[in-house]
Amino acid sequence: MADLKFQRNFGIAAHIDAGKTTTTERILRYTGMIHKIGEVHEGAATTDWMEQEKERGITITSAAVSCQWNFPTVKGKADANTKKYYFNIIDTPGHVDFTVEVERSMRVLDGLIALFSAVDGVEPQSETVWRQANRYRVPRIGFVNKMDRAGADFLMVVNQVREMLGAKAVPLQLPIGAEDNFKGVVDLIRNTGIVWHMETEGMTFDEVPVPEDMKEEVEHWRGQLIEAVAEYDDTLLEKFFDDPNSISEDEIHEAIRKATIDLSIVPMMCGSSFKNKGVQTALDAVCRYLPSPVDVGAITGINPDTGEEITRMPNAREPFAALAFKIMTDPFVGRLAFFRCYSGHLDAGSYVLNVRSGKNERISRIMKMFANKQNPIDFIEAGDIAAAVGFKEIKTGDTLCDENHPIVLENMFIPEPVIAVA
Ligand code: GDP
Question: Which of 89, 111, 248, 417 is 20 to 30 A away from residue 374, measured at CA?
Fold first, then answer.
């Protein structure tokens, strides 16, 4: 059984044009699944990969794409001590017309990267998605993209997230330089600068001391960060005032993780996905701060026969229960039903009950979508996301389960949002 602690199911939410496609492409490149990449700004992306994707009907806008990330990275390279994380990136459509689709995807993801343009800040669609994420209590980290553009202003966006979205946005970094001169970031946790190598477009970097003229600002924001998460670690604030150097990085990370999962804060980072700057750090933050299916815990459903409430743990030994969140047609394999498995285990070739239709249907194949290929897998287990082939009748929102243990997940209990106001 896979260790669910290392699984992350997350989406990237953004207003159109903020750079979601570019960022997703970068992620798939860094995670080693793509070797050639289309540059979006040069018109339609036209690499072999994209051509092939178009033909096969799976793209990075596939409902869910899977990849692996080696965490942590050292100087942009995989270190011997890395830990492999398994990502399912769930598509959250950025266009206003797809609001209902965003809603569906929100149900199956555990965390979000909220992407903003450093020039345009909080835009109408960011607000819509934000409200939906509040409704489903989805923890998020903020990534302020396009720091290389004229007019880029990281702290302006941080303020907008506070004021317009009512969230306690807390910078984890401060940019070093902006616009053409955007060189790197100060990591407020480590209290050190990171400057990317221009010739490798941010793929590698040097650690540098905090620039002299930023020291005061860094101290201020580092204090804000510690204060914002202090209630999640009793000793943090004490240490901060007594001897800030006695705080370990791990202590801060853990407090940020708890505060993020609790929706108390939204950690904010910045970069330029177009220039390959900062995306890798954001992926490390996904591992560090966004919840795993274990953190999310049990889900609640209804027994369709008795009307009783049932809970299921994210555990492969529980009875199988899954939710279909997107139906797509692939020219090669036919109808694909993307689903999230909340509990249990399902072998390809076996039968599941669709509670709505009352039919037991055979899943001929279970597929995982990677950047450049579709891989059939033998089984799927709790916490994971895949696509099923073989359904005769299926709709978005259908619960799929073990016929001996029927459950309906559609009426999943959704608590009222509690978001701390800055
Ligand atoms: P989406 O609509 O959110 O998927 O946005 P895209 O990824 O398609 O990006 C929209 C436009 O912004 C494209 O022309 C990209 O090349 C450009 N872009 C994306 N990220 C950046 C960035 O970090 N810096 C700059 N200067 N341009 C970017």
Answer: 111
